[in-house]
Specification:
Elements (H helix, E strand, L loop, with lengths): L5 H14 L8 E3 L15 E5 L2 H12 L4 E4 L4 E5 L2 E5 L3 E3 L2 E4 L1 H6 L2 E2 L5 E2 L2 H16 L7 H36 L10 H15 L1 H20 L5 E5 L6 H14 L3 E6 L27 H28 L2 E6 L4 H4 L10 H9 L6 E6 L2 H7 L5 H18 L3 E5 L4 H17 L7
Parallel strand pairs: 2-5, 10-12, 10-13, 11-12, 13-14
Antiparallel strand pairs: 1-2, 3-4, 4-5, 6-7, 8-9
Helix pairs in contact: 1-2, 4-5, 5-6, 6-7, 7-9, 8-14, 9-11
Length: 434
């Protein structure tokens, strides 16, 4: 589980390098110079730019197949494959504000000894430095060697990039830091540099800057209103292997460079802990149930919690390359109300849960009660049989949203079946492969 598919990644590397050959059309460049031991890591993504990223992306899909998800932003077109991530950068901008001119980039292309076209070393170093600082407020020390080599071989072009993006005063200051190997010093002035980039761009091209800046935020708004990454819930009794399956899915998504925002039972918007671990519940029926009035009040609070979590925490995470995975969710109360100290009739819960936001997919782990009970004995065998029957009824009521998975199969098979459900959830999101 979670093993990197080296064969497919090697094929991808060959295909992407082929796209960056001197005579290839459309013209594409592979970013990141491989010098002085700076090599691609096992789970690294591929960063490219092209004179027409739409055509280049189509060529990639012809060779490598359809990705699970294609996510297009103003500054990057991301393709998420089961074996990794491929990024095409149509422009080098921060919030729509350019820090490197594309015309200049393609004027200074270098052809390596391997026949692959790359930006000149000065541009590659500038992209590494500015992208990390402007977008993330970071500087990766691994790139220090690229900075040193670029400064040695083409200081003039580096200075030109700095002055054109930030003006003479700040451009010279950035160069002063780079001459003494203190690129990270610029991080203390990230906010200042972002403001300078904005106003310097406004003075040069006011209308273009305004439209580009507004366009960036409209795209971000669209991704937050209609998140491209799915919400997947996992249900099942104690002993069905929910934690193991979730860990397996998390490892598989890591290969795709997709993060996981993990949640147990509810978002807990009103708690100081943003993510609550599932932990081990040794006696889920050990506490007395609440009365009907308290139970109903808690149902209402649960619905409010889910809506706030869905509208804010969920949408933001799922707009930023994270799958929202919930270990149990509100429908679990219909199966095991005593676990949640619910003491009222189930019909108000069913009514309120119809008003709650719904996952893209629900993985329901079922199977042979004897196999599951042998793993954990938190409840009696008779109660486990009742719960398994109830989970199957929940799955039937959810229709195509639910996927029944046999928890008694080998873990690798269970995780694979779970990933098939995740793939189906991706398919139904904006930009999904369907």
């Amino acid at each position: 589980m979670g093993e990197v598919d080296s064969e497919k990644r090697d094929k991808a590397n060959q295909a992407l390098e082929g796209l960056c050959r001197e005579d290839a059309e459309p013209k594409a460049l592979l970013l990141r110079h491989i010098i002085c031991g700076l090599e691609r890591r096992e789970l690294s993504d591929w960063d490219l730019t092209a004179d027409c990223v739409e055509s280049a992306g189509s060529e990639v899909e012809k060779i490598l197949g359809r990705p699970w998800l294609t996510l297009k932003r103003q500054y990057v077109h991301q393709r998420f494959f089961p074996w990794g991530q491929v990024d095409f950068l149509p422009r080098f901008v921060w919030h729509g504000l350019p820090y490197l001119q594309m015309e200049r980039l393609f004027d200074r292309v270098e052809l390596g000894g391997d026949g692959v076209s790359r930006p000149c070393l000065a541009h590659d170093a500038w992209i590494l430095w500015m992208t990390g600082m402007l977008w993330g407020g970071t500087f990766n020390s691994r790139y220090q060697i690229v900075m040193r080599e670029a400064m040695r071989s083409d200081e003039r072009e580096l200075r030109r990039c700095a002055v054109r993006a930030f003006g003479r005063a700040w451009g010279e200051q950035l160069m002063a830091w780079q001459r003494v190997g203190k690129e990270a010093e610029a991080l203390r002035f990230t906010s200042n540099l972002r403001r300078v980039l904005f106003w310097h761009s406004v003075r040069k091209t006011p209308l273009r800057t305004l439209f580009s800046w507004v366009g960036h935020w409209l795209t971000e708004l669209k991704h937050h209103l209609f998140p491209p990454f799915p919400w997947v819930a996992v249900l099942g009794p104690d002993g069905s292997g929910k934690s193991s399956v979730i860990n397996g899915i998390q490892e598989q998504l890591k290969t795709m460079r997709v993060g996981v925002r993990l949640m147990h039972w509810r978002p807990n918007v009103f708690s100081k802990k943003k993510e609550v671990a599932a932990g081990v519940v040794s006696n889920p029926h050990g506490q007395k149930a609440h009365g009907s009035v308290t139970s109903f009040a808690k149902l209402v609070m649960l619905m409010v919690d889910w809506w706030l979590g869905f509208l804010f925490a969920s949408r933001h995470a799922r707009a930023k390359a994270q799958v929202w995975v919930s270990d149990r969710y509100y429908n679990d109360l219909l199966v095991d109300p005593i676990r949640y100290r619910y003491g009222a009739s189930l019909w108000p819960a069913r009514l309120i849960f119809r008003l709650c936001p719904k996952p893209d997919k629900v993985i329901v782990l079922t199977g042979d009660p004897e196999v599951i009970h042998a793993r954990k004995q938190e409840v009696t065998f008779e109660e486990l049989e009742r719960q398994l029957d109830a989970y199957e009824k929940v799955a039937a009521n959810l229709g195509q949203r639910a996927v029944l998975v046999d928890a008694g199969a080998p873990l690798e098979v269970v995780v694979k079946n779970g990933m098939d459900a995740v793939k189906a959830a991706f398919k139904n999101r904006p930009g999904g492969w369907g």
